[in-house]
Amino acid sequence: MARCFQIGPFDNVATLLEDSEAGPAEVVGGPSSGVTILEAIKLGHKVSLATIPMGQPVVKFGAPIGIATRTIEAGVWVHLHNCRSQVDERSGTLDVDTGAVSDTPYE
């Protein structure tokens, strides 16, 4: 069973402590005891512990770290494809795999 770490008691995401396939995962460090992961998620990436409605904050460290750009169901990978920065307007254009900007061509 995979493990993930919930940093703050009010966080709605947890960080994977190892690569995970879909299936049950233990949540350590917070009040949540477990989550069913719905897709493969790599070590160090975030999984939603609860449904996060579109437009609502993604909370980690007890503070908002972004805004959901679509409804994120519990157990789903939270990353650039469904979350944007509150301070960087270009964050929605970042490549989901590399984090590189995709709205500016480089030659």
Q: Assign the CATH class.
A: Mainly Beta
Radius of gyration, Cα only, in angstroms?
14 Å
Catalogue the unreliable spans: none
| End-to-end separation | 44 Å
**Quaternary assembly:** single chain
Strand content: 25-35%
Main sheet: strands, sense, barrel = 6 strands, mixed
Number of domains: 1
CATH topology: Archaeosine Trna-guanine Transglycosylase, Chain: A, domain 4
Quick tags:
six-stranded mixed sheet, 9 strands, globular, three-stranded antiparallel sheet, mainly beta, 107 residues, Archaeosine Trna-guanine Transglycosylase, Chain: A, domain 4
Question: What's the SSE blueprint?
Answer:
Elements: E1 2-5, E2 13-16, E3 23-28, E4 34-37, E5 46-48, E6 57-60, E7 63-68, E8 77-78, E9 83-84
Parallel strand pairs: 1-3
Antiparallel strand pairs: 1-2, 2-5, 3-4, 5-8, 6-7, 7-9
Please describe what this structure looks like:
The chain is an all-beta fold and about 110 residues long. The protein has a single domain, classed as Archaeosine Trna-guanine Transglycosylase, Chain: A, domain 4 (Roll). It contains no helices and nine strands. The strands form two sheets. A six-stranded mixed sheet has the order 4-3-1-2-5-8, with no helix packed on it. A three-stranded antiparallel sheet has the order 6-7-9, with no helix packed on it. A hairpin with a 5-residue loop joins strand 3 and strand 4. It is globular, with a radius of gyration of 14 Å. The model has no long low-confidence stretch (mean pLDDT about 90).
